Amino acid sequence: MASARRPFLKMNGLGNDFVVWDARAEALSLSPETIAALGNRSTGIGFDQMITVECSPAGADAFMRIHNCDGSQVSACGNATRCVGRLLMEESGRPDANIETRAGLLVARATGDPRVVTVDMGVPRLRWDEIPLAEEFADTRAIELQIGPIDAPILHTPAVVNMGNPHAIFWVGDVEAYDLGRIGPLLERHPIFPEGANISLAHVFAPDQIRVKVWERGAGLTRACGTAACAVAVAAARDGRAGRRSTVHLPGGPLTIEWREGDGHVLMTGATEVEFEGEIDLDTLAWERTGPGDADAAAAEAAS
């Protein structure tokens, strides 16, 4: 019989935070209601996504299962992939890790700084039926969608990209000039997106610098979304707004995104952090912090 007490790690990538379970030796299956209770920032642990590291049916180093804080399961999460990649590389001592996801096989690579990880996010999907959209558009660099009055829309003609999950990107002059907390829920489940979509506001303020704010499908406003950063960088390059290598500035910090010329793969590089180690009783959902994180270790090193 599986133990009700399970250890976990609390991690984040630029503030996009996760509870990470190792379920390779002992399976873990939680109901959407339990996941939502754990994700509640007032009464639970609090997180954007829950990550379950499992054995890989495809023979990769691990399979990464991703649930949003509302309990829904999604296929991709770039920041979580960097966090899990870091853990697997620390465990194996190798400079890379192969991670199976519902979006495909992703490869994490070391950078020389143990907390900074590069992930090959694969090739973006750009056709309307790959996003997917509910109707055909020949050009996904700007689709017919707007919010607000027809003659004076608040936002309009987003670019759409699939980076393992659907993204809609609205180009704006100031990402803070819009109430994304109000607009995001309206657009996330718009009928044009049969699987929902992540909604980004993006402003290109230099040829290789982009500021982004994200409403994440199933999670809400987030400090960082790795797949959104990739989608924005790809959309900007497709439209001639930026080059194929950009720094994407999210509320939680920067990610470096490169859309390679040769094979079309998107590489994402950014920081990771272990916040703390914890343990939870899955019967009662009572949890406690049991070990230090990166900041604790840095403080202890500075004091010594």
What does this structure look like?
With 304 residues, the chain is α+β, with helices and mostly antiparallel strands. The protein has two domains: 5-120 and 272-303, Diaminopimelate Epimerase, Chain A, domain 1 (Roll), CATH 3.10.310; 146-262, Diaminopimelate Epimerase, Chain A, domain 1, CATH 3.10.310.10. Helices cover 18% and strands 38% of the residues. The protein contains five helices and 20 strands. It has helices spanning 32-39, 78-92, 180-188, 226-238, 294-303, and strands at residues 5-13, 16-22, 49-54, 62-68, 73-74, 96-101, 104-110, 116-120, 146-147, 155-156, 159-162, 166-171, 198-206, 209-216, 220-222, 245-250, 253-259, 266-271, 273-281, 287-291. The strands form two sheets. The protein has an 18-stranded mixed sheet that branches. β11 (159-162) and β12 form a beta hairpin. The longest helix is centred in the N-terminal third of the chain and has 15 residues, at 78-92. The radius of gyration is 19 Å and the shape is globular. The model has no long low-confidence stretch (mean pLDDT 95). Pathway: Amino-acid biosynthesis; L-lysine biosynthesis via DAP pathway; DL-2,6-diaminopimelate from LL-2,6-diaminopimelate: step 1/1. Homodimer. It is an enzyme of class 5 (isomerase).
